[in-house]
Amino acid sequence: MGRSSDAATPARSVLRTVRADGTPIYRWDQRPGVPPVRVVPFDPDCDTEHLPPDNRHAHDFWVLAYVERGGGPVGLDGRQVTLRDGEVHAVAPGEVVAAESIAELTHARAWSVAFTPDAIPSLASISPLTWAHHPLLALFAADGRQALVPEAERPRWQSWLAELADELQHPDRLGAPEAITAILTNLLVASARLAPSAPIAPDPLVSRVFDEIERTYATKVTAGDLARSLGYTPGHLTTVLRQRTGRTLLDWLTERRLTEARRLLRETDLPLSVISTRTGLTDPGYLVRRFKARYGTTPDRWRREA
């Protein structure tokens, strides 16, 4: 929810695109050898010159924000929320975050944990199209996407976040990747246990798109083919999907293919030529380019280190 220019982190977000209303959308920029996790304390003095006047922005990754000390309002996808002590907020991909005045938040202290779900082994091994329904991400599917951490548990949250920040500042330290993953898991489990029992109803259009991707991703189907099969123009469906999920139709199709590619790399000795064919990624060269762009390393190197 906040950003600090002083935080030393092994991964960062970079500008992906800008919506018609001027809202910048940031994408995850993965660094090799480190889990896709980033944590920063809220810093009212952070550099916001590149953002619109109300600091409005969205992203294509997941953010869990813990409010250690409240103070001031923020906009979360059109909802005005006053930050209160002990609250945890789940900001899903595509949701717009805005603060009309950073000055109003000078008394707040919060932690922002940004991640992609494949940082968790149990989520990395399943289809990304099912992430939204996984129990670990229950708070992201809950009505309001916020919960209150009991006062007795708040010191533990603060300890987890401080430990996570420390591990991320020393990614080459022995066991750092495993520690990062373990702490993120603790945070997600704790937030999921606080989530209301009734989740938000799935978006019917997003569900249709994901079902069609799951059915066809292993073929040579294109994003345009998918859109037309659902009765939409590629441009319109891409715009709608980006607004609702933070990612485009091609992003989700590619993510599903790369998840399957990783499974085959991990569980088989198949050559890249066969893996590219089985995942709809056209040819080994294209597989290598897309894999490196997403994970910061090549398939062969990932297979050796998996």
From TrEMBL:
GO molecular function, one term: DNA-binding transcription factor activity
Keywords of this entry: Activator, DNA-binding, Transcription, Transcription regulation
Keyword field contains Transcription regulation: yes
InterPro entries: AraC-bd, AraC_XylS_family_regulators, Homeodomain-like_sf, HTH-like, HTH_AraC, HTH_AraC-typ_CS
Positions in coiled-coil regions: none
SUPFAM superfamilies: Homeodomain-like, Regulatory protein AraC
Domain HTH araC/xylS-type: 207-305
Name of the protein described by the UniProt record: AraC family transcriptional regulator
Organism: Nocardioides turkmenicus
